[in-house]
Amino acid sequence: MADHAAKILVIDDSLAERECAQSALCGEGYAVLTADDGQSGLELALGEEPDLVLLDVVMPRLNGLEVCRILKAKAKSRGRYLPIIMLSTRNSANARVEGLRSGADDYLGKPYDAEELRVRVRGLLHHRVDQPTRAGSGLATSEATNLEARLAEEFDRAQRYEDPLACVCVGDPSSPDEVRVAMRHLLRQIDVVFPGRAAGEHVVLLPNTHFPGALAVAERIVTARDTGADAGASAGVAFYPHADVRRAQDLVDLASESLGHAQQQGRGYIGLVQHQGYVYSPQR
Q: Please, what is the average pLDDT of the chain?
């Protein structure tokens, strides 16, 4: 399906916000459906199977976080990838992390710029076409694809559309295969995993993901009981745009450096070298 023929569902209890989103997207040729609360939006989504959902967080009957979790679970059970963008006046780091942890692919604070919304929608729909859906895997992976080539492609796309791009390096020399298998259930369909350069290291590319979302992914991997965290899994996080990331390889290099800082502290740590070398152990 071409992007301009895509069906987009806007779920928001504010008439003004629905009309704003509809105006921004209809002008691009998208077919736009709307719902004024979480429950009716959920029912419409299950019946119409939209290609992308714009979802307000605070709504009556059923809030956006719950709607997101249900829609993601339903899409996965049907072997589909459904991109979801959360929209909210709550735009703190904690609010964004909460939204991304519920399964959202992106998060926009209100009020947002109409062109930014269109670019983010276009980017997610582009990824949806590019990435084949693999029922039950929860993750698009390719051993044959070269990491450098895919990294260059994602970095070029992030620069061109002014989208965020994050990288998480995960290391567990004692049980790397266990970590890799477990990560399949913790990532989105558009996320890509490659073997890292060091033994027991994995590189996770996270398209359309800001720093809070990347941090949430790292926390999920390190704290999940079935990822081998007790055997020593740690993670390092880097992101674009950032002053230290001027080219694609910088992203992986800084994430790997972050991982090194984390592993120096012991097991189950996350390194954030771009945040003054901060290293911490998330609560479990």
A: 80
